[in-house]
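FAQ: What does a ligand-bound record look like?

Like this one, built around zinc ion:
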Amino acid sequence: MNRSQWLKLTGPQQIRENVYAWINPTGDANAAIIIGNESIFLFDALSTPRQAADLDKFLKARFNKSVTTVIYSHWHEDHILGGQVFADDARILAHPKTCEKLYTEKERFVAYAQKERSDIAADLVDARLIIPEETEINIEINTGNNVIQLMHWEPAHTEGDLIVWLEKEKVIFSSDLFFNNMIPYIGLNACGYRRCLERILKLPFKYIVPGHGNIGDRKSVERLIRLWDIVGSYAASEKNVDKILDPDSLPSELAEYNSWIKPTFLEEISEYVAGFWELFVRKITGSSA
Ligand SMILES: [Zn+2]
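The answer part, i.e. the structure of the complex:
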């Protein structure tokens, strides 16, 4: 899929009755929208107040209900810095580990995001961090229209990753435990991340809404797992990290991933392989190269 095809699939996308994804046209974080019989539930709050204001405008124009619950999937700034737009009317909730992390980082969080994300820094000038309240996890939330299962499995992308599973509708909102047609940012724990991908596949879902990228299906997850395996076995077989960092020496099976959205694919994949090498090979062999 090229970029213009992809852009057609961004913005609000209805998946099932009362279930929508907001696919961020910038490639930044997506959000889930679930319309209850009295109010609206959001999973993630987009990357900037301006992005969240666009989402809010859509919700107000389309549904005569207010957002009363926002759950942050994890602490990364690109998923939560639109939160202030909803904070007057909504409870903002997250995994206890996410709350703890944000509380610890609260003084420098926005400044750090502005520095890291120079591309959206102008949109973050007025951003405020809303510290969430702790949510219970592994619970069901009945919205009157749908039953949301809010789940946490293990430390993976971050320590407090949450996913939303709609069993009846067969829709999963994975947040950053899956990226579609993009090289994922693994984050905290590559082994945990890989196990979470397997657990996602065990759920009988039909549609998956990733943290970044357009809506996927089972094949999309299988494709990422295959990439993981190609990269993992190459990283484990190659003892020379300089060679791993050289895009010309990568396995030829990676060619099928050249269409993934990021244009700097080969550089990124080299870093990715190097990350695997760091995680698996150096630990196993005790190599200090
Ligand atoms: Zn993230």
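Follow-up question: can I read anything off the structure? Yes, for example: DSSP finds nine helices and twelve strands in the chain.
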